[in-house]
Amino acid sequence: MSEKLQQIINRQNQALIGDDQKVDEVIQLVGFIVGEEEFSIPILSIQEIIKPISWTRVPQIPSYILGVFNLRGSVIPLIDLRARFGLPLQKHTDETRFIVMKNGDDVAGFVIDRLTEAIRMPKRDIGPAPDTISESETMIDGVGKQADRIVTILKVHKLLERNF
Amino acid sequence: MDEFEEILQDFLIEAFELIEQLDQDLVELETRPDDLDLLNRIFRVAHTIKGASSFLNFDVLTHLTHHMENLLNMARHGDLVIDANVMDVILESIDLMKALLVRIRDHGEDSGLDVSGCVARLDVVANGESEPAPVAIETPMVQAPVVSTANEEEPDYANMSDAQVEAEIERLLAQNQAEAIAKRAGVAVVSAEVAEPDYANMSDAEVEAEIERLLLEKQSQDAAKRAQKSQNAAPQEPVAPSAPAVVLAPAPQPKTEVAPVAKAAPSAPAPRRSEPKEEGDSKGGGVEQTIRVDVKRLDHLMNLIGELVLGKNRLIKINDDVEERYEGEAFLEELNQVVSIVSLVTTDLQIAVMKTRMLPIGKVFNKFPRMIRDLSRELNKKIELEIAGEDTELDKSIVEEIGDPLVHIIRNSCDHGIEIGDVRMAAGKSEVGTIQLKAYHEGNHIVIQIIDDGKGLDADMLKQKSIEKGIITEKEADAMSEKEAFGLIFRPGFSTAAQVTSVSGRGVGMDVVKTNIEKLNGMIDIDSEVGHGTSMKLKIPLTLAIIQALLVGVQEEYYAIPLASVLETVRISKDDIYTVENRSVMRLRDEVLSLVHIGDIFEVERVFDSSEHAYVVVLGLAESKIGLIVDTLIGQEEIVIKSLGEYLKGIEGIAGATIRGDGGVTLIVDVAALMQMAKSVKSTIGSESGDAKKLGIKNSASDYCVMIVDDSKTDRTIMRKSLEPLGVTLVEAVDGVEALNILKQGDHYFDAMLIDIEMPRMDGYSLALEIKKYNKYKNLPLIAVTSRAGKADRMRGVESGMIEYITKPYSPEYLMNVVKRNIKFNEGL
Asked: How far apart are alpha carbons B221 and B237 in whole angstroms?
């Protein structure tokens, strides 16, 4: 009986590994617009996406950090990606969202102009970041090519990195 | 005593772990009696426990384990074959050992159990000569003289002559030992008495008498201690009587009587701990009265309570809002009750959890007698330390932080404060210097006072030294008050010692004191009189996680200032502010207080000109003071400190954030950093910007800006169409939240707002209330445009700050006219 059991377990394991391989080939991204461009980040690094709520200004920090806001009892920094990317500021619209991203214990909210869609993309369609910028400096993880457009994939850990 | 307690706890934890393993090993040993590894392991357990228990003076346990060890050692070396008989005895002895350990855990002593029979059997099995008698007899003989010495010494303590100071400290140490020995003696006697007759070279009557004598000694020792205690500090009194109550009980059965006495003895120096023990006893023992809890769990609990406090604050706010809105309705009463119960229970819960984190400050104080003794030797001075209030409790995290500063202060007092004997005599003081260390509660603070009767601080000398060392300029020195001059000792690099000694002189110590106390949000107050001594008062908040804060407003921002650092608040007029060398100062009674505007520190945009009056929050931290100018005082609130997280940590001047009742985030001011920043901030007080006026100038119709807030697209379009002919700039928002955000962004300067009442997320009334919270928009005309036409609705509109109330449907002209009137539209443009 135990042999049978072993066989079943083995089969299940194989099935699981097979699944993993399939998942590995495709990564899920969430696309959003900041300025004119579409960016995306891995769906697993998103804690949640919320509509804009009020925030509190914090003094003595770079202007792209709008301040902090209250997310169900946690105080979380709010970063305006337009300002972060050096784009002119824009008023918040109906479509403005805060994407709360996390990387380990680091959590921050990012203001984006609007969401586009969740993208499933095979890994082979993702090219490296343009090598005009040094590897350690760039916030770009790679560039995903789709039929009609290209999507810039951002490094979440870089976005969440304090650089002041 | 505490150190002993700690070692004991460690020992017990270790012993119980060992025993757990032991049980398994023994079972295995029975099946494989030849396994040397197993035997070795069991031997080591007995050995370890013996070693530790002899160190901790648990003689019965030592006695037992010693014989176990003997036996096992023989087995280990093959001198003894373990058969069932031997095994029985080993198991019996191990059960007994467990019982003893349990007793030690529950009662702190190992008396009351008879081990001699077992020991004898162990010895028989081991084929050795049984010799328990010497152990039992020797101990009482050693004990007798020592205890009586301690007994004689005790009452002397208060009137101790100078020459005996050093010896006194030794004796205090010896006293502890004497106590332990006395306890041991009692134990040994008991075991002798209830055990085999060959123990007792004494008759039963003699033993009885011996116990009687020990009881008396204990009693007088306790009495002496109590007397000494009550001289210094009163609060232990309610507990103390419990000791004699037990002791005085008649003693027909020594076996049961000795145990409580031995227990009562340690209760005198540390009454707090004794209470649960006594209770446990009355309940029949066996029940565990304390449990060790990982501090992390307590911290987690504290965090949860923090959340609860925030929730409570929020509930109270909502309750207020609801009260306003549904005045007179029956359910309000009920809601009120629930809210008040919740807030009451939350507060109690918070206090209860806070208390679980409390430790007596004695934990820190305990190391000072020894330190003083060493220092006085080293410095060749005669110094006596008086400690009071060591039972005062405060948060664990603070206890951990307070040790270092106290060490530095006391070293400083010994080195610089107390003079050498000859100098003291010449000055007409007693040869022996005294340092008093006191702790007591004062409101939400604990005060630790260090008083020496040394030479005191000389303000002029301090100034002179500081100038020499380049810490201050002569000009600054002239402007300094005496207290400020005393504060100089906390400056880094400052030292009055002529030469660097091993004790002090590097100018580091007092700087450490200041930094640590500031870290705890504490204050330092120095009082000193030349020739008479110095008193240093450290005032520290009881806990760090949840604090009382003063909420202040500047423009439309709010900040929370820890109330512990707020000395007072004063309302002043602009004329009271003087400028001295580019710094703003004011007179506060007989002091000159330097001022700084909170807006300058936190880079707040000055949009509007504040009124003629300003509020000054006088902040005190460690030894310095500053006046912080704010626009408004909001009030006092209990806040929970939350960190700003990794990303925003270390922002100068901000200690953290808290979440307010309305769900908004308010930043907490770091008073220590703020004081530092104040030194470098350029003052703009009195030169308020005139930008606000500039914004008021209208050159064309499009300079007027009106916001339309309505969730219905149709309604927005109707309003837009009605107003377009005016040519004013129109901005639309779909609900209150968006409208607020647009206002906050400040891209437009609005002249009026048209607000619908029924909107998702935030309705018109709430929006109006929110807007009116901002000073900047106090005068912004808010016009309600709604189909709600009831009188009550109109009333609410007015209450929330609307100045016009337009009911739908309306004619475009009517709307236009109302808007024109309210924005003071100039037709001429």
From this structure: 16
Please list, in sequence order, all residues whose beta carbon lies within 8 angstroms of the beta carbon of residue B167, skipping any fewer than 6 positions away: none
* Spatial strand order in the sheet of B632-640: B632-640, B546-554, B557-562, B665-669, B654-659
Model pLDDT, residue B508:
62
Three-state secondary structure call for residue B712:
coil
Give the C-alpha separation, B244 to B237, whole Å.
Answer: 12
Q: Same structural domain for residues B488 and B555?
A: no
Q: Which of B731, B703, B736, B702 is nearest to B719 (CA)?
A: B731
**Vertex A152: Cα angle to A150 and A154 (nearest 5):** 165
Domain count, chain B: 6
Confidence of residue B381 (pLDDT cuts 50, 70, 90): confident
Identity at B428, one-letter amino acid code: G
Strand partners for B635: B551
| Burial of B662 (C-beta count, 10 Å sphere; 0-12/13-18/19+) | middle
Which backbone phi and psi does A148 adopt, to 5 degrees? -110, 0
- Helix or strand run (H / E) with residue A141: strand A140-145
Q: What would the two tokens of residue B571 be?
A: 């309302």
Among chain A residues, CA nearest to B308: A73
Residue B691 lies in a domain: no
Residues of A whose CB is below 8 A from B740: 54
Residues B56-88: tens digit of each pLDDT: 777 788 888 888 777 777 777 777 777 777 777
Q: What is the span of the domain harbouring residue B168? A: 133-286
Give the C-alpha distances (Å, rounded to integers) separating B434 from A91, B228, B460, B501, B532: 69, 17, 25, 22, 11
Specify whether B47 is located in the same domain as B189.
no
The tokens describing B763, both together, are 């309705």
How far is residue B477's CA from residue B48's CA, in Å, rounded to a whole number? Answer: 64
CATH number of the domain at A74, please.
Answer: 2.40.50.180
* Residue among B357, B369, B190, B189 nearest B269 (CA): B369
Which candidate from B557, B644, B747 shows the least CB-CB separation from A75?
Answer: B644
Quick one: pLDDT band at residue A132, thresholds 50, 70, 90?
A: low
B687 in any annotated domain: no
Q: Cα B225 from chain centroid?
A: 29
Distance from CA of B665 to the nearest CA of A (A): 6
Taking a C-beta distance cutoff of 8 angstroms, is the pair B221, B180 a contact?
A: no
Q: Is B42:B26 a contact under the CB 8 Å cutoff? A: yes
Residue B175 lies inside a defined structural domain of this protein: yes
Residues of A with CB under 8 A from a CB of B: 52-61, 65, 67-70, 73-77, 91-92, 94, 105-108, 160, 162
What's the rounded Cα separation, in Å, for the pair B793 and B757?
9
- The Cα B493–Cα B378 span in angstroms is 24
Instruction: Give the domain range for residue A146.
Output: 26-159
List the helix and strand counts (H, then E) for chain B. Answer: 29, 23
Q: Please name which of B59, B61, B53, B66 lies closest in space to residue B8, comparing C-alpha atoms.
A: B53
pLDDT in tens, B683-694: 555 444 333 334
State how far the Cα of B516 lies from the Cα of B508, in Å rounded to an integer: 12
So what's the ipTM on this one?
0.77
Q: What pLDDT, on a 0 to 100 scale, did the predictor assign at position B209? A: 62
Residues B670 and B806 in one domain: no
Who's near B675: CB < 8 A, 6+ residues apart?
B619, B621, B624, B626
Is B599 domain-assigned? yes
CB contact under 8 A, B646 and A106: yes
Residue B489: alpha-carbon gap to chain centroid = 26
β-strand B433-442 against B445-452: which pairing, if any?
antiparallel
- In angstroms and rounded to an integer, the radius of gyration of the C-alpha atoms of chain A is 19
pTM exceeds 0.80 for this model: no
Whether residues B228 and B376 fall in one domain: no
